[in-house]
Amino acid sequence: MPHATQHADVATVATAELDSALRGGPFHVALRAAIAARGLPLQRVQHHLSRHGVKVGVTSLSYWQQGARRPQRPESLRAVRALEEILQLPEESLIRLLARPEDPAVQRPAARSYRSLVAASDVLEHLLAGLGSPLDSGLHTLGHHERVRIGARRELAARESHHIVRAHRDGVDRFVAVHHGDPGCAPERMTVQALDNCRTGRVRSHHDTGVLVAELLFDTRLRAGDTFLFRYGVEDGTAGVSHEYVRGFGPAGGQYALQVRFDENALPVRCHRFAQHSAAAPRSGLQELALTGRHHSVHLVEPRVRSGIVGIAWDWSAAPA
What we know:
Mean pLDDT: 84
Shape: globular
Strand content: 25-35%
CATH architecture of the largest domain: Sandwich
Structural class: alpha+beta
């Protein structure tokens, strides 16, 4: 019965990996190994938790096993104790691993997974619907210049956007800005600042995916063909170590420029630009970027953006002190 033997071998390996992870951690590796050993999809894990009277989203469970988040709130810790029972683990085995300090080198994944990006896309659609914002904003982007600041803790501290737009229908009087923080961020603690030719309206966010949307209200109603300039900023600084900044585009548009500036006490060892046709596609167009000497920044310029993703990524030499 070679087929049965193969399944037995897989089960033995999974059990061995789980035993090792429970002894040595870290928490997210042990949780992932336990879920894999029991063969439960996250939706079933969520269902079992609800039967224990604990509500945890599938996205949160996914982040926990990726290492993008650690359960810290009382409700989350209650969920971890319930998981020990659901996954047939020794009592306190996961809680004990949570008591250990995080290893900064593995605290954050270098890039978001495709699943997390899809989850964020679904959340964004829901948040926009809540603001009554149509998918077609009525604005065509002629130019978009972004400046991103990386702080002394190597965190995404803030970003500033300067937009040049043209209305393609009458009556447009607002723009909905979208900010997607790094894994582990707290969008409810971020602030949105209207800097030029706009004021801040309603702000909505979703904690698990780190998505924030904000209305920027114009002082005038644009007519079709009118151009308009406005500028806003987002103060973030709520996540851990940042490794990249990405910007996604739907239809083709105008010029896009991205500048990433690093704190002088936290400089990366290398930076590069990249592009993707979609979140699921491999990265292409890799190009090394050299830090400027005085301002410690790198940049990219896309004369005319196409549908897809562009961004800048960087590598750190070691964990911050």
